[in-house]
Amino acid sequence: MGKRRGDDVLVASVPAVVTETIFTAAMSPSPSSRPAGANNHSPPSWIDSASFDHKLMVVRENLKLDVSSMDDFLAEVEHCQGKMHDFQRKQEDIKASSQSIQDRLMEKIQQEEAKCQVESANVETMEKELQEIAQERDSIANDIADLNRMRDDLTQRIAMAVEEASQQVEDINMVDEARKNQVPRLKHQISLYADTTGIKWDFEDDKRLEGHVSISSKQVVRSFSIDPQDHTKFEIANKLWGIMDTSQRL
User: Which parts form a coiled-coil structure per UniProt (predicted)?
Assistant: First the structure.
């Protein structure tokens, strides 16, 4: 049977009403047996020996209920009480289940909070690592910029050095060309000087001025060896002229 509207009020109030009704009926004598002028609140002597069936009959008479109506009423009361007990058991089950769910949720929350703390620590560590990587990246970028500047500077220097070397090579080529052109002339001059002075130079020892003076007409040959560190150019020239004059006078 479904729960009808007002059953909660009925279940709560019926036991008290029935108890009060039974007590009132048991304590109240019937109109025929009540002595004239007797106090309405004084219990009659017949109550002590009366049976419960008689009391129930009195209650039924006072409530004007027949047996079938009372049985239906008591059955309804018992049904409502059973519903109430079922509701209380379900309420306790729900409460226990709710507590279990709450405990599991709290445990899950604590686990997730612990995970969050670990992840927060990991995030902080990763942030520090990222900062270090960023600093290292900036340092490398600065080094690369410095290297690029050095490369550009070296490129300019190399270009200048190449240009200077090219100029020097050109100058050397010009000097070499001039030397090549001058060598025959010098040889010719030296040959003339040798024929005139009779000096034949010996270039084996580059630290001394060595050679000989030959006068072919007189078949005279005189050797000489002069240390340029011990004589000035003027003195060397005088020595050579002296050797030539002596050779010619012989």
Answer: 109-164
- Residues 102-149: pLDDT tens digits? 888 999 999 888 888 888 888 888 889 999 999 999 999 999 999 999
Q: Does residue 169 sit within a domain?
A: no
Question: How far, rounded to the nearest angstrom, does the alpha carbon of residue 29 sit from its chain's CA centroid?
Answer: 95
Structure tokens of 154?
């070296």
Q: What is the pLDDT of residues 232-245, one digit of tens each?
A: 989 888 888 887 77
Domain boundary (70, 96, 112) is at 112
Residue 75 lies in a domain: yes
Question: Structural domain of residue 204, as residue ranges?
Answer: 198-249
Structural domains in the chain (count): 2
Is 47 within the bounds of a domain? yes
